[in-house]
Amino acid sequence: MKRLLRIVLCLLALLIIAVICYVAYVLLTYYRLEDNLPLEVEQTNETAVTATVGERYRLVSYNIGFGAYSDDYSFFMDGGEESRARSEAAVYENVGEAVKTAREADPDFLFLQEVDVDGTRSYHVDEYAYACTLLPSLGQRVFAQNYDSPYLFWPLLEPHGANQAGQATFSRYTISSALRRSLPIEGGVMKLVDLDRCYSVSRIPLENGKELVLYNFHLSAYTSDGTIAEDQLKMLFADMSAEYAAGNYAIAGGDFNKDIFGNSSEIFGVSGEAYTWAQPIPQELIPEELSIVAPFDEANPVASCRNADRPYGPDNYLVTVDGFIVSANVTVEKAAVIDTGFRWSDHNPVYMDFILNND
């Protein structure tokens, strides 16, 4: 009996040591990239093309969900069951079809979010490199690392693992420079959940000597402190307002992780009372020189995101969290959601047609 007790105590001690070592590993390997980090611009266009005012352009934004979210997929952090893509082949299929769908919309500019470059959850497929091969006409490219997470040993039977992911920006037109801005995140232990967060800033020179400044963002979803999400918006708004004040054109696109309409449940006829992660954007935060552009077609209302607590079906919670922000010198002609039926991601792509106003 004493021997059995000693064995149990030894196993318990080993378990405690393992937990302590793991916690130490997570804390010691956690890091954030510096703010105002210059980003490399990959330029594959043989001839540089300069954008102009008065022309119509199209921007497409698409959160591709690290190549895992087919329409029958559910994710453990949303209350579902799965933690990784189902296979390497599934990653290639989902990313490939998502990028092809975006390409078929004929964008001049394309923003992708949740693009893995090295992830356990995505079988270490470099999704950014793969997307580049599918977008030969968008030869100006920028990648901004959003986070590089330590290995998450959960769920136990199939851990989420270590994952490096970010935002990818593609353009037909010359990108003269790009920058990574570090967003505010929670402190303490919660920073390990929120990880790092950023948006990228890409500068497009215009023929009139001004610049089109593009912001590709993916804001936080899993926060316990609601003020963090507001602080992220305030920072992005301040950057865009400063560019507008300097005479430039500022356009942002991406995943707000907030209900852009504020009442998506009513619009799409699905109850959202049990889901609190997608809160409305506080209107008082939006400067008068900026506007939120919610993609919407009244004749065919389609949400941009589904909650992934279950496979896609008639009882899914639907919400629009993907959209755009524009400065007052930009005219928006149309903004809508491309209905994919969530076949390749838990998001649908969104697009915006716009014109840069003449002075």
Please describe what this structure looks like.
- The protein has a 7-stranded mixed beta sheet with strand order 1-7-8-9-10-14-11, with helices on one face. A 7-stranded mixed beta sheet has the order 2-5-6-4-3-16-15. The protein has a two-stranded antiparallel ribbon with strand order 12-13.
- The chain folds into 2 domains: 1-30; 35-356, Deoxyribonuclease I, Chain A, CATH 3.60.10.
- With 359 residues, it is an alpha+beta fold.
- The radius of gyration is 21 Å and the shape is globular.
- α2 runs parallel beside α3 (127-134).
- β3, α2 and β4 form a beta-alpha-beta unit.
- The protein starts with a helix and ends with a strand.
- The chain has helices at residues 2-29, 88-104, 127-134, 191-194, 226-245, 264-268, and strands spanning 37-39, 41-43, 56-63, 109-119, 140-152, 161-171, 177-182, 198-205, 211-218, 249-255, 290-293, 305-306, 318-319, 322-327, 330-337, 350-356.
- The model has no long low-confidence stretch (mean pLDDT 92).
- 23% of the residues lie in helices and 30% in strands.
